[in-house]
Amino acid sequence: MAQPRKPLINLLLILGFTILGFAVMGYHPGIEDDGMYLSAIKSDLNPALYPHDAEFFRLQLQATLFDKWVAGFVQVTGIPVAISELLLQFGSIALTLFACLSIARKLFTEQRAHWAGVALVAAMFTLPVAGTALYLDDQHLHARNVATALILLAVSRIMAGKRWQALPLLVLAFVMHPIMAAVGISFCFFLTITLSEPVHAWFRSWRQAESTSALAAAAPLGWIFESPCPAWKRALDTRTYYYLYKWTWYEWLGALAPLFLFWLLWRLARKHGNTLLARFALAVFAYGVFQQALAMLMLAFPSLVRLTPLQPMRYLHLVYFFLPLILGCLLGKYLLKAAVWRWALFLLIFNGAMFAAQLAEFSGSRHIEWPGRAPSNPWLQAFAWIRANTPTDAYFALDPRYLEAPGEDYHSFRALAERSQLADAVKDTAVVTQVPELGPVWNRQVDAQQGWKSFRLEDFERLKTEFGVDWVLVSYPSPSGLACRWHNESLAVCQIP
User: Which of 7, 25, 136, 397 has the highest CB neighbour number within 10 Å of its CB?
Assistant: First the structure.
């Protein structure tokens, strides 16, 4: 499959694979982490929102400019938040694929290899990354999506021999998502060394870097050894994927097998005289071995439990990005070649499988939740009514495990209803692990909602007395005594008398 050289045609191909990748992965604003980011963006634009619970997103986002960047985009362009998020999500996908194309062009000479690599990355955006609870790309605008695109661009600049151009890209990635940028900087360090040193000298540099990092790990800041409060530890224990030594055997396989594959690629590429591919594979392997060893050290000792929320196994995110990129390039070079039917089968198999997986993952929602389209999901219908018909300072209580309800699909009440809520027992726990001082507040609010499914009027009145909650979202038909204003077949929005 010959690929034209003209920039306009290349741009159209990137656009085409961006559309295909977006269509396969779907779009679900307000789910998972977007519950925090989207709430922060809306709060930046309208400070009157969230008068009761803003700390559940503001404190964690102090380390990033992502929400302010998106809010600034909305203010400058005048484009509504929902459409802005969609456009920026689409742009981050396109930028990611452009960076992948740039990397592929340095590693392979065949144009069909370049586009096969891009095509496979686009298809595999929702590939789970071992046991980290990450995808390659999220189905909503996420700081990690933007940071990853910038990191991959930095990698492409280093491979082009323009290392100084990588620095501002890594700085931008850092202000978007510090944790992901840190592992990106780590990989760029290994890549720079492998591309600039003979292999024997590189191993000396690696050992020196490893010793230095190990020494730094042995003398951490004092806060690491502070005893965590019980509420923080309780929240931490809900995030089972934080604990590397509790991973299943297949999650361990998902962590270690890619490193072996890149070691094998290094040996084979070197044997066949493909020096640049060999050095790139060596960089991925060495980065992975170093980060894996560091993660095992950080997560091995109870005295270092405060380091657990840093999630050092997230280093695999980059490794998993390079897996489909290199595999796709190899398939394009050796298998697909110029055969149209092979390309068609290749695209159908990978895109079809990932598309089916996403339909199953979000079975209660539309595959692409377009801005302005009336929701079919009963939870989203309730959130929309609340957003349009309740006071801005309304304070809600709802099932603390509502995100796990069948058909809810992890859509955030706070982000989509645009109202304050008592802490939940599913997603707010992740915030508490990053911001320990929220632990006692979270613990008290979650405990007060225990037994939600059997709550009666006196239980709701207790929440009102204790926390000032004046509205509830409950199952329909609602408990007697509540003043209900709206309902659908599943849910009711009610005031507490």
Answer: 25
